[in-house]
Model the fold of this input.
Amino acid sequence: MSGTDETPKVVFVGLASCFGCQINITNVEKHLMDVLGQVDMRYWQLTSSDPMPDSFDVAVIEGAVTTEEAKRTVRALREGADAVITIGACAATSGIPGMSTEDHAADLAAVYGEQVPDAAGAGAIAPCAVKDVIEVDFEVPCCPIDPYDFVEVLQHALYGSNIYRRSSTLCGECKNNERGCFYGRETLCLGLVTRSGCGARCPNLGRPCNGCAGLSPDANVPQARRVAERAGVGAEALGRALRMFNQRPCADEEA
Amino acid sequence: MLYRVMDASELPRLIDAFMEKYEVVAPVKSGRSFAFEPVSSFDEIVLDYPTTLTSLKKYILPPRETLFEFNVEDADVTDYTLRIRPRVLFGAHACDINALNNLDLVFEDARYPDPYYEAHRAATMVVGINCSPAGSCFCHLLDADEVRSGYDLFLQDLGGRYLVSIGSVEAANILEAACDLREATDEDRREFRRLTRERQEAFSNDIPDIQEIPMLMDAFHKDAFWAELGERCLSCTACSAVCPTCYCFDIADVLDPDGKTGRRERILDACTSPQFALVTGGHNFRETARDRVRHRMYHKLNGFNSKHGRYLCVGCGRCVRACKADISPIEVLRFFERKGAEDA
Ligand code: SF4
Ligand code: SF4
Ligand code: SF4
Ligand code: SF4
Ligand code: SF4
Done:
């Protein structure tokens, strides 16, 4: 894993998350050494408790920003890195940690009473996406990430690429899988507003999309509400489902 | 065109004969709808299927196809052989064969023939079959309900027997070797004409028959109608994915995990995707969903026509069912009907 001076130095940092995306990177299995061979891995929080090095080229961030300290960390990463890559829904949209946004103070009081620890209390902030704090160059979507998507994005950061990430939503990929539509069966699916790219893998396995790739910047939520109403699913159900992975864009949309 | 009559009970033998040398792709039940899939026996095939969810396009123009492989270190293209499976696409409806003929006009253009497309098409036999229109079928309004070329065989069910139009020598040889054939009689021809009329009358009257569609498209290019459609569009690209004649693609160089080798891939794209008309420098020629939906309809009902003299849309009705925003060429025809009523 060591390299020459030109080998790009990479650091991996985990914020509020389950660390599942970092673990999932190892699921490239037989290719793992090939992938790591292209970088000088200076720091991987998952595998070592050494302190973070001062000098690096690429910072990979997993997780949502939920504390002042995390804010400082990502700012320092932005300052030091030529390229910042976020991995997973938590980092991209605040994901699962973002679900607590609505009534954070009341939740804390219910759990800790008066003795709220600093990381959750005075030092805590409403969970937000990494891109709410710093500029992010590349995003690997989904919960968890597809390890091959990570490899593609890492290579994009290292070498450049002509692969363009589209903002069209999922249904085209779903049709390519020869799938009908959940709405024809009075079942909610978030594919119609979720950014494409995952290959509509959940509908292909017979489960509706939960929107883990994030709401497309071109999502047409008003039309999705009409579709949900007409299918007998109800627009409120669609809004509730969106809160699982899409707190942040939902807030944007209301603003 | 050569016509012969064969007994319906002989059809399994024809399929078996094809299977000796070809992969046979045919309509099968798939979930709540139908799909063209490889079959291993005649019994899997649903002969009187309604339109499939997606089209035969996937066998000629796959959603993702490797064009060549390359080596990054030498910056060189490595030897790459496209592996093509000889196939029989069995049970194609008239609209879908017309759709393949439309794709031929694009990819077998004499000046810029596409070697990948040509290789697939050359290794593929097409066997058509008659159909009865579903509620969303409007091929008859766009001159795509009958097919005059582009197939190897076309079967017309006459009840217990098929009138077979023979379009290629290769298919004729297989057919003759596998089945007992006889000449068509006057009675067969009378029955054929009767069934053709019956089918023509079975099309839905709810879809308006509009004359001079390309001209109307030009006349109403700036109408507020397009903004209404754009406001509904989900930018989901389901329409182009299911459409038998949408052929636009993107090119991507995909590296292998070691970063040393890779593949150039052709990935089908769609003009309803927001980045479709985005160019270097950041300008997007079709920034809004209104512009994108309008473009799709223009290509289907106007643009292709001015170049090739026929509609790109073959009226198969797939996008009518796949679009959750009720956007389809049928809506455009209805819009013209309303405009006509207002004028009258
Ligand atoms: S099942 Fe979901 S992804 Fe598939 S077409 Fe329907 S809404 Fe789109
Ligand atoms: S289908 Fe939806 S929930 Fe499943 S991986 Fe794709 S974006 Fe995530
Ligand atoms: S535009 Fe719609 S109706 Fe026309 S050929 Fe395509 S899918 Fe069929
Ligand atoms: S309608 Fe759009 S995607 Fe389809 S062929 Fe035309 S330009 Fe291409
Ligand atoms: S026209 Fe319909 S199917 Fe096509 S992108 Fe828009 S919403 Fe999706």
